[in-house]
Design a protein that fits this description.
The structure is a homotetramer of 289-residue chains.
Chain A: H1 8-20, E1 26-28, H2 40-54, E2 60-63, H3 69-82, E3 86-89, H4 99-109, E4 117-121, H5 123-126, H6 132-139, E5 144-149, H7 154-166, E6 174-177, H8 183-188, E7 193-194, H9 203-214, H10 218-231, H11 243-254, H12 271-283
Helix pairs in contact in A: 1-2, 2-3, 9-10, 11-12
Chain lengths: 289, 289, 289, 289
């Protein structure tokens, strides 16, 4: 964000930065993407600009999560026209729906969606922890092609993959982890990939880790995981839910990719935290010490 | 809601129903008012219609809570023009702000608000439990005139009122409880009133209870509290956060005040729950048994 | 505690201190009484010494809560012989029992208990929040004569009292609040009293507040509540669950009633916190400033 | 348990069952071992009998967790004399200690312990979530040789192992996971092993999985993980914290290893759940279908 507006040039540069790092797709308007802090107009603008910049070089997935169904459906249409490839939806995040209510919500959305849908499990923000039976039922819906799980709960992961393995007629839905420190083990055990906030900063690191996991090269994985954990230091300079996003934006600004402006009401890291992030990046050789 | 739109006629009838019951003000677009499920356009329509219907007979307070600051500020302007008297804001409800971030949020809003502001503490929905020091700091902001607390935590209530009593220069901010079963004791101990969802159904009961509490008539309070607890049965016919709202809407429909349509993605009570609510109302003599 | 042992003389002096303040009964081995930190031998010693000191001047209730049923039952027998009048039990606090398991637990205990039993709802420590239906079922057990509720949830309180009022054949079970700041309103609305940690420090204040509530003298209640809130300052000088107990013990030591030794592994307040508690007591005139 | 007493013969048979399966050590009196439900006398009896049965064939680790420090220290001495090799301690589980209080607790214990100590992170039962800085400080204490983590939080795991890797002078503390479905990935990424409740039922499966993880044989791991997930079905036949233990005991009884008696106040699975566990074991070929 820049002066309360989408920083379009910054967005373009960020997209080129992560594409240059080799990422296999883009995930827009999620938690790190500050989706819920953007107005409907800004979301639409964002999706269109990203679609125009990417020009189908990689798939784009857009989070259409909202508390307003009408806005969710409108955004879905914009996504399809802008060249997105799939959508992702978490439970509406004010009044938390129960399991049956969440499934009914999906049944309202699905017939009206122009693109395939991923589920998004994000209990820390939505207050709704999608459990195995609910996810299993939801994944059985035609039009639902996978799940992004940001619960950090590898027990749930193993249960879901175990269900997937036991399906009589495998539907082949995809599992993406939203917990970047769990990317490697998720892929080793059968996940299709991850949606990693840190990949905005150092996309090549995550691409290499993903490929090492696919190739089951444990020594390589452990080396890259060590680097990933070092990069995670940028999330530790604050106390609240916003700290992770601030850390990433601050790093992107230090790397001269784009500005560090946060969507209101949150504010970018000030001097002391910025110096700490600079030190973190310096230790990794991402910027000169 | 009716067919995905604001049920304007129903809204008018509901307003007349609660005014006829003697309520001292209206609170729009809160949790029970389904504010977060309405699009910005629907919110604006709602505020305008209510303002036109009320015609200044009682004060109107409108919840402008949102995750998008721009929308919050726009709605505030609409409220002022539509004849509202005050605004109320809870923390943005996706990425939960820390105490300092919440105060910074207020400092962004306050200079731009055309009306005085109440704080809204609603931890079960916002994930943010505003504590005593944060509330005390927030209540010291010029422009902040009170707090609506839906935490149900009478310990916090007593701490806040104790702070208010100890203020060297009393600013006279108001305390409203959002927990209707705690209305009487809150008023007995110094609260200015309550925002009671059940008052949509039986407004006179809440007005009488409020007045009995103001007059410290304990026998009367206990009798009315008993009736209030009986009315609370309508909240018990469901398992999720939406149950309370469904119960109120169902009751209003049975009383022929307005329809029971919920804002998407939630759905009105079906037959069995409706029969239970009918039984509850019948036992209270609100509808024929 | 003194040198890892029960401070018998301190206990005697504390008992005389609170009896001199007019309390209507003693509650031993609860949370503030550090019951769970004492060995079975120390608990037995404590109950016997207290019984011998009280000599039936007031009723004694003893918490026999434990994770070991055998120890609970043994302690119950000791209580009966030592002159206690009733027992109180919270759910076993390691593996949290479900509702049916808690009721089965009661059914194991009740036939073997030599004294009537209170239930103890203490979710913050036991992880078990006893809800209305479970409490209602438990209170219907012969031998169960009441509930001490430390949930701080006045909504639950009103539900329970509403159920009690609706009983076809009133069993007359008692409700005691464990939240001292809620004593007055609980009694106003029908509670039989409170178990108030702060009454160790200033017993007369709580006795007067209780009596003012019984007499429904609101002005008096508000004045005393103000003093109670001021006394609550002693709970605010620490960050953990132990802070409240440390504050009370520190105050008792400053009042020269008994030492401030905590049961291991916790430690008494050190200098800075002690000075703050002294300031709190000084402001109330309980010790010279 | 059998008739309220330790089932000594059952214990011996269970020990031989798991040793026959090749386990590398025993973990006594943990959550699954029902430690907190046993009296001090029963704990002592259990440790002695197990020590006598094992006769140093494998190392024994004993959980000395308690809310009573005196009992913890006494049990530690018994363990040393009974032939145990290490101790493990979780935070006292009634009044939850803060970080500094937990470290002070360790400093009280360590000088008096006759055996090396593991830390036990078990937030679901103790209400205390040991975080990275606290664990790091605790692991730096002489006498502390590792941590058993049952948080299920692989993010914490990676942080701890990352800290371990960065130690200037590696102390070589061990990491054991208490989440059996996470055993393989934990070992792949550097854990020393796991404490797996399911290994009571099918010890060879867990030994093979551990060895496959050590050898980094992913195909083998995935096959065994599938079997492990199928075995996990025995945890799913109940609704409360006790369900897992009931499932294991029920399975052991069906396998004719020992009885299914639970420590009071909990009760063994009744007919319907027992039939489901039998079906689970039958599907795995552990008992005839």
């Amino acid at each position: 964000m820049k002066d309360g507006k989408i920083d379009g040039e910054g967005l373009d540069k960020l997209i080129e930065h992560v594409l240059a790092g080799g990422v296999h797709g883009l995930f827009l308007l999620g938690t790190t993407g500050e989706g819920p802090s953007l107005s409907q107009g800004q979301k639409i603008q964002m999706v269109r600009r990203a679609g125009a910049q990417v020009k189908k070089r990689v798939p784009i997935i857009v989070a259409i999560t909202d508390t307003v169904v009408e806005d969710t459906l409108e955004l879905a249409q914009v996504c399809a026209k802008a060249g997105a490839d799939a959508l992702v939806v978490a439970p509406p995040y004010y009044l938390p729906p129960g399991p049956a209510e969440f499934l009914a919500y999906l049944d309202q959305l699905l017939p009206a969606l122009p693109l395939p849908l991923f589920l998004y499990n994000m209990p820390s923000m939505t207050k709704v922890s999608l459990d195995t039976p609910t996810l299993a039922e939801a994944l059985a819906r035609p039009g639902v092609i996978g799940v992004k799980d940001s619960s950090g709960d590898m027990g749930l992961f193993h249960k879901l993959l175990s269900l997937r393995a036991a399906e009589p007629r495998p539907r082949g839905w995809a599992f993406f982890t939203g917990s970047e420190t769990l990317l490697a083990e998720s892929v080793l055990f059968g996940a299709q990939g991850g949606v990693c906030g840190g990949a905005n900063v150092d996309p090549a690191l995550f691409v290499e880790l993903f490929e090492a996991a696919l190739a089951r090269r444990m020594d390589r994985i452990l080396a890259l995981q060590g680097r990933l954990m070092a990069l995670s230091a940028i999330y530790g300079h604050g106390h609240h839910a916003s700290s992770g996003i601030k850390g990433i934006k601050c790093a992107l600004s230090l790397l001269d990719v784009c500005g560090d402006g946060m969507a209101a009401p949150f504010a970018a890291f000030a001097g002391p935290e910025r110096q700490q992030v600079a030190r973190d990046l310096g230790a990794l050789g991402l910027i000169p010490r």
